[in-house]
Amino acid sequence: MISPADGEAMLQGLKVVDLTSVVFGPYCTQILADFGADVTKVESPGGDAFRHAGKPAATKGMGPAFLALNRGKKSATLNLKDETDRALMAEMLRDADIFIHNVRGEAIARLGFDYDSVKALNPTIIYVHCVGFGSNGPYAGLPAYDDVIQAASGATTLMGRVDGNPRPRYIPSLIADKVAGLHAAYATMAAVIHRLRTGEGQHVEVPMFEAFSSFTLKEHLFGLTFDPPIGTEGYSRQLDPNRQPFQTRDGWVSIAAYNLNDFVTIITALGDPEFLDDERFATPLGIFQNSAILYRRIAELLPAFTTAEAIELMRKHSLPAMPVRDLSAMLEDPHLQQAGFFQQREHPSEGTLNEMREPSRFSAWQGHETRPVPRLGEHTDELRDQSGS
């Protein structure tokens, strides 16, 4: 038994069979691997489709997006339509703590790896099914990717509520996939804790539609929270077209006027306290109701300042502010550099990689060196040798 304070990775000893692909499932299993779980990624002979997203650095099937989601894992290629490979998969599952996959229900049942079949092999296994839509609704079994989940959840209408352009638009991030991956990671760890308490395995279903709808509607259900509604949907602060980054003399800056008094402090600091003498701003309610006017005045004042001057001024008054940084400059961010967020690693086939470490920090564990991202099928022979097949 590993003692709680032995310095070992927190999920050390957990064996995970990972039959997921693209982003949703692999993000979950990379988190498990980062915390020390032994993750074996089972791929078809053609590999995870995300291996080919973006130009590979050196080796076919080692694209940058795949490299960002699959460190710490082994890779075994199995043809699960082949009887011998299915038998090897069954042997792996008998010895596993967790099986996680994103294969549609009917297809996984045809292969013989639905929950009841796997439970017969391993009664205490934690079986995690990553699905597009929950099995208890009319969309059950439909295929799903990030785009369609953004559309179905209302997320594609958010930008139009801000800028007045009615055309639905995707948030330019695989945000639904990644949110669902985080839900899958914590649901899996909750099931692990349940098994530690009770000895009982279970089936866990993580639906991307429900996960991302929950994420989006935390603030945007808003007035519809009540029945009957007390207002409209959509959190007005997030949808205010004036609450955007402000242009400075030489760039752009984000200043968050979250508390009502912040508007007074910002406009005074920017040199126009007389503007606030208007009776519209005489009460907290007046400031709230006229926040759009205050945002516009901040936007008018800031071009007189450089970004550095604006940041210095805001920090002098303990107001949250940061310069707008382009993606291309993130590797040079001084905070991320000092915090060790980006870490360079020499990959056996891909050369020097910039990796992002697990962002949480723990007083009882300092992290550990994970396996490099595996090449397709890199550990297949090792797995076959162990099984004697």
Keywords summarizing the entry:
single chain; 389 residues; alpha/beta; Rossmann fold; 2 domains; six-stranded parallel β-sheet; three-stranded antiparallel β-sheet; 16 helices; 11 strands; 37% helix; elongated
Question: Which helices and strands, and how do they pair?
Answer:
Layout: E1 15-19, H1 24-34, E2 38-43, H2 64-67, E3 73-77, H3 83-94, E4 98-101, H4 105-111, H5 115-121, E5 126-131, H6 146-152, H7 158-163, H8 175-198, E6 202-207, H9 208-220, H10 236-239, E7 246-247, E8 252-255, H11 260-269, H12 284-289, H13 291-301, H14 307-316, E9 321-323, H15 334-338, E10 342-347, E11 351-356, H16 380-387
Parallel strand pairs: 1-2, 1-4, 2-3, 4-5, 5-6
Antiparallel strand pairs: 7-8, 8-9, 10-11
Helix pairs in contact: 1-8, 8-9
**Amount of helix:** 25-40%
Mean pLDDT score: 94
Low-pLDDT parts are none
Full CATH superfamily name of the largest domain:
Crotonobetainyl-coa:carnitine coa-transferase, domain 1
- Can you identify the CATH class of the largest domain? Alpha Beta
| Order of SSEs | EHEHEHEHHEHHHEHHEEHHHHEHEEH
Q: What is the terminal-to-terminal distance?
A: 31 Å
Strand order, sheet with most strands? 3-2-1-4-5-6
**Biggest sheet, open or closed, and with what strands and sense?**
6 strands, parallel
Number of helices: 16
Word description of this protein:
- The protein is of the alpha/beta class and 389 residues long.
- It has 2 domains: 15-216 and 339-387, Rossmann fold (3-Layer(aba) Sandwich); 246-323.
- It contains 16 helices and 11 strands.
- The strands form 3 sheets. It has a 6-stranded parallel sheet, sandwiched between helices. A 3-stranded antiparallel sheet has the order 7-8-9, with helices on one face.
- Helix 2 (64-67) links the parallel strand 2 and strand 3 (73-77).
- The protein is elongated and about 80 Å long.
- The two termini are 31 Å apart.
